[in-house]
Specification:
single chain; about 130 residues; 4-stranded antiparallel sheet; rod-shaped
């Protein structure tokens, strides 16, 4: 906001002075990142190649200039999955081979954070058998 201010006294002769005022309103970090979906379900064949893109999760933060980062908070049994922050979303990829006989389902808890505030979502990864017998 920009505006002018003028002050004057009641003396004789009256004295006056003026100034220009500029006020900038800054955004504070008062909004949590929010996932666009709180629950994701995906099927993944056990013979999927390491590096396969599994899913991209997205959280939105209404604060100006906020940067949202993503991490797998829990459920990543045997570190089978990884997540990277890309283009505003969190890309989950397969980090290690799957084995249907060892794990048939992973329930990943994903955290989106702006450095101070956060939100979580769950990703259910159902592993399907490759029928390799």
């Amino acid at each position: 906001y920009n505006f002018g201010v003028e002050a004057s006294d009641h003396g004789f002769p009256p004295m006056t002075s003026s100034a220009s005022v500029s006020i900038s309103v800054l955004d504070v970090n008062d909004n949590n990142p929010e996932f666009t979906e709180k629950l994701y379900n995906i099927r993944l064949n056990e013979d999927a190649a390491v590096g396969t893109s599994v899913l991209t999760v997205t959280a939105v933060d209404r604060d100006i200039n906020s940067v949202v980062t993503y991490q797998i908070s829990s459920g990543n049994t045997r570190n089978r999955f990884s997540i990277t922050s890309q283009s505003g979303g969190g890309l989950i990829t397969l980090a290690l081979p799957l084995d249907y006989k060892l794990e048939r389902q992973y329930i990943l808890v994903i955290t989106a954070s702006d450095g101070t505030r956060f939100d979580t979502a769950q990703v259910y990864v159902n592993v399907t058998d490759a029928n390799t017998h």
